């Protein structure tokens, strides 16, 4: 049997999104059918819309989602019908070279549903990050479902599915922030703000937020930043150093993805400090650094993929921190919208007016 449901797709590069009827099949072996509860509007969805991730249009957008499992296919043991889940795009295979090394957070062969969702005319859809959750129902690999408690706001915890997890994980997993360390975060959009929350959760005592927007810096202070630097008004590196006894931060997280801000991160860290790149650069960008400086400053330069997270490990732990009041996921939910409001949400995102718009179904 198949299911006809409402969903948001983009038919061609830079076309407006459309609310259409799609066809979702019942789950086959290893698959799960999920009734979507909430889905955050993420920059990655906008990248899909602009053709920045691929050209396999039409795309079924949405991926920062919570839902309830309504059916499972043969051989599924990870979840059961009725489970509340957060969807993820790292369903680990357990067999690739990363998994074999005991590093499933880097799995190079993550799973998606085998069957295709389609338009009513049979045109196959490409689900964003293998999820496609701007829909009343979606079909995923069962490993893309992480069971979580159902006594929490799904709109808040669903953001762990991508952007918030990327930021928190950049701080806690990739940056390996330790209690008492100093941290600077360059770029205070959703991911950067989440990195600040992660730094606070990890026990950093000095957290410097850097951005060109005073409103974003005020939000950073509410989330946990102890100091702010408006890099439109003062030099970012000097500003970071001024709040770290002149040395620079132990860890600098770059959440913009540009060569200019990466250089600020590189020179804004202490000797032997760590740089974490979690901002996503565009293909044409190039970085030039004196190799002697790379050698002479020591430390490490890391890139953070999805916050180096392992959903089965990290989602339940962070939901528990949320329930204990140590992680304010509610602060990331700027507005709650419907499926028909996503184009407007993209506009607000581009204007920097929201941390997250969240679709509620």
From TrEMBL:
Domain Enoyl reductase (ER) as annotated: residue spans: 13-359
PROSITE patterns associated with the record: ADH_ZINC (PS00059)
Top EC group: oxidoreductase
Necessary cofactors: Zn(2+)
EC number(s) per entry: 1.1.1.306
Pfam families associated with the record: ADH_N, ADH_zinc_N
Keyword Transit peptide on entry: no
Family of this protein: Belongs to the zinc-containing alcohol dehydrogenase family.
Protein's name according to its UniProt entry: S-(Hydroxymethyl)mycothiol dehydrogenase
